[in-house]
């Protein structure tokens, strides 16, 4: 708008996208291939096994899965993209991605619910009745593609409610891979789940120092956010100080829960200057 260029029409942009979409997809696949080859070279330089890769993965949806609970028999999301990023370098480059879609402009697709039952191209690649939230299925397809390039998944970092790790475990149990997968949880999602858990406890709302229910609910929400942030800060400081000794880090972090039990040993073991116990003292 600043250059006074008239915007193109919707149909014009759609026509252009249809003309170049295949080329863009092909280039993206070549770029992912280059990223995988780069990781193999880096691991060879380090003297590590180039056939094993540590990854982190997650799935995003065009709208929240839980937004349609109780409304329709199908999950509300109709498109998703499962992404796998390497956990070997600080850049965490994406090495594989898998888009899935139930959407197709052909009327017959929505009636029959099956892919490819109409003439011409079909933009949907999963059936209408398939579960869009089946992350184990999408992760397995991604891991199988990595296996075709000679990469096996070792350490898998996911959010706590993901089933992607079971995909790596099933491939190992079926003998398709030889590397035993190890599961790690993303601390960012752990903090988010911690906040939601505290926010949903009715007993916490009852002890908030306020007269009205709306005020107590507001205080409970602030308390849950503050607790999650402080515990996350403790974990970050523990990882910085004791990342070379996992057992020591686990022992130090145990004092976070012990301080809530009334055993105020945090003064000699605290990791963060503004410890969560200060909230109670």
UniProtKB/TrEMBL annotation:
<dbReference type="Pfam" id="PF20700">
    <property type="entry name" value="Mutator"/>
</dbReference>
<protein>
    <recommendedName>
        <fullName>Mutator-like transposase domain-containing protein</fullName>
    </recommendedName>
</protein>
<dbReference type="InterPro" id="IPR049012">
    <property type="entry name" value="Mutator_transp_dom"/>
</dbReference>
<feature type="domain" description="Mutator-like transposase">
    <location>
        <begin position="3"/>
        <end position="254"/>
    </location>
</feature>
């Amino acid at each position: 708008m600043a250059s006074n260029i008239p915007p193109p029409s919707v149909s014009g942009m759609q026509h252009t996208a249809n003309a170049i979409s295949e080329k863009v997809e092909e280039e993206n696949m070549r770029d992912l291939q280059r990223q995988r080859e780069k990781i193999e070279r880096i691991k060879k330089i380090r003297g590590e096994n180039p056939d094993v890769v540590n990854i982190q993965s997650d799935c995003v949806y065009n709208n929240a899965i839980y937004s349609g609970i109780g409304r329709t028999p199908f999950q509300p999301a109709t498109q998703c993209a499962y992404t796998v990023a390497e956990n070997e370098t600080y850049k965490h480059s994406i090495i594989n991605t898998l888009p899935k879609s139930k959407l197709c402009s052909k009327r017959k697709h929505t009636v029959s619910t099956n892919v490819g039952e109409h003439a011409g191209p079909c933009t949907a690649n999963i059936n209408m009745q398939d579960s869009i939230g089946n992350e184990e299925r999408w992760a397995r397809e991604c891991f199988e593609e990595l296996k075709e390039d000679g990469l096996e998944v070792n350490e898998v970092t996911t959010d706590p409610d993901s089933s992607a790790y079971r995909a790596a475990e099933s491939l190992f149990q079926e003998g398709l891979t030889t590397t035993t997968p190890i599961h790690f949880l993303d601390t960012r999602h752990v903090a988010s789940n911690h906040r939601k858990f505290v926010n949903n406890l009715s007993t916490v709302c009852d002890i908030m120092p306020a007269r009205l229910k709306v005020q107590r609910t507001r205080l409970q929400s602030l308390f849950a956010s503050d607790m999650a942030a402080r515990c996350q800060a403790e974990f970050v400081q523990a990882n910085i100080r004791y990342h070379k000794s996992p057992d020591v880090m686990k022992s130090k972090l145990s004092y976070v829960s012990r301080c809530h039990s009334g055993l105020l040993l945090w003064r000699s073991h605290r990791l963060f200057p503004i410890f969560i116990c200060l909230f109670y003292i």
